[in-house]
Amino acid sequence: MTAPVFLAESLADVRPGGTVVLDGPEGRHAVSVRRLRVGEEIVLTDGQGTGVHGTVAGVEGKDRLTVAVEGLRTEDPPAPTLTVVQALPKGDRGELAVETMTETGVDAIVPWPAARCVTQWKGERAAKSLAKWRATAREAGKQSRRLRFPEVTDPLTTRQVAALLADADFAAVLHEEGSTPLATAELPAEGSIVLVVGPEGGVSPEELAAFAEAGAQPYRLGSTVLRTSTAGTAATALLLGRTGRWS
């Protein structure tokens, strides 16, 4: 079992041989939930690609511990980056999609209230739902031992998604009627990949036309049709494997 990961606010001035304090909600989780004790291994990350490996040097109360820093590691930004535009699923399937895509290795997730989404984020519900997605990405990033957590952006309109697709080095829409398998698409070695995952009711003809105009063609994953909450994860695994990021 590898050392548990916790999110630290800043690791800019941390050096091997020094110490760093973990407190607040993360310190409380480490001390009161995980029950870490002196001498146990721990990893701290800022979620932006920097990680500290060390051991617990001291525990104070129920929400504060001191970590003796043994090593410092930084991860370069991934290439190519992978962004998934995720149509809003029903119920808690949105959090499931965010969780599994984060564990798989996606770099950014864009909530998209597509025309055929049953769920629509409005008012206070929008703020709460977005907060849940972001918290899910953060916890899944720690669980999967990532040092660089995915960004969960504010929801984008179809027009804004089209602009995002137009700026990508490779843009695609997952669609069951796509004639080209995603597994055979020509992918860039650098730059950005943006993939759209539609709702259970499918991407509307108007949305498909807008995305095609932006340079995003429809692709299919395989012979079966996945749910919107699982399609993004399957596509993320496929793309990360094909770009060499899993090598």
TrEMBL record:
Enzyme Commission number, as recorded: 2.1.1.193
Catalytic activity: uridine(1498) in 16S rRNA + S-adenosyl-L-methionine = N(3)-methyluridine(1498) in 16S rRNA + S-adenosyl-L-homocysteine + H(+)
CDD domains for the chain: RsmE-like (cd18084)
The entry's keywords: Cytoplasm, Methyltransferase, rRNA processing, S-adenosyl-L-methionine, Transferase
Domain Ribosomal RNA small subunit methyltransferase E methyltransferase: 80-239
Compartment annotation: Cytoplasm
Residue span, Ribosomal RNA small subunit methyltransferase E PUA-like domain: 22-69
GO cellular component, one term: cytoplasm
Biological process, per Gene Ontology: rRNA base methylation
MF annotations from Gene Ontology: rRNA (uridine-N3-)-methyltransferase activity
Family: Belongs to the RNA methyltransferase RsmE family.
Free-text function comment from the UniProt entry: Specifically methylates the N3 position of the uracil ring of uridine 1498 (m3U1498) in 16S rRNA. Acts on the fully assembled 30S ribosomal subunit.
Protein name from the UniProt record: Ribosomal RNA small subunit methyltransferase E
